[in-house]
Amino acid sequence: MRLTCPHCGPRDRREFTWSGDAVALARPAREADPAEWDAYLHLRDNPAGATRDLWYHDPCGAFIVADRDTVTHAVHATTLATTLAAKVAAKVAR
Ligand SMILES: [Zn+2]
């Protein structure tokens, strides 16, 4: 599998470290209900198919979000995590 780092271009998967489900970018508000925090911290889906997860690119230190398919191993898109986190924060602030 190859992932495209927005800084470095297409790279072999061995340069990346999987860092979990991209739901980590949608952190609940500090005062959120404990059940919401429990779901954020502990509950994850394990889909066969489309998924969105975080990867750390070791050579440049960037976190990227990869939209990929766990069945076909196709990578549909990669985005800097900071770009998506800013969009999530903007939605929460509304
Ligand atoms: Zn990179």
Note down, in words, how this protein is organized.
The chain has a four-stranded antiparallel β-sheet with strand order 3-4-5-6. The chain contains two helices and six strands, in the order βββαβββα. The model has no long low-confidence stretch (mean pLDDT 90). It has helices at residues 34-42, 81-93, and strands at residues 2-5, 9-12, 16-21, 50-57, 62-69, 75-80. It starts with a strand and ends with a helix. The chain is α+β, with helices and mostly antiparallel strands. The chain has one domain (2-93): Folate-binding superfamily (Folate-binding fold). Bound molecules: zinc ion (ZN).
Indicate the topology.
Layout: E1 2-5, E2 9-12, E3 16-21, H1 34-42, E4 50-57, E5 62-69, E6 75-80, H2 81-93
Antiparallel strand pairs: 1-2, 3-4, 4-5, 5-6
This protein binds zinc ion.
The site of zinc ion has 7 residues, from loops.
Short description:
With 94 residues, the chain is an alpha+beta fold. Helices cover 23% and strands 38% of the residues.
Bound molecules: zinc ion
User: How do the strands line up in the largest sheet?
Assistant: 3-4-5-6
CATH class designation: Alpha Beta
Euclidean distance between termini CA atoms:
38 Å
Question: Which tags fit this structure?
Answer:
94 residues; Folate-binding fold; two-stranded antiparallel ribbon; binds zinc ion; 23% helix; single chain; 4-stranded antiparallel β-sheet; alpha+beta; globular
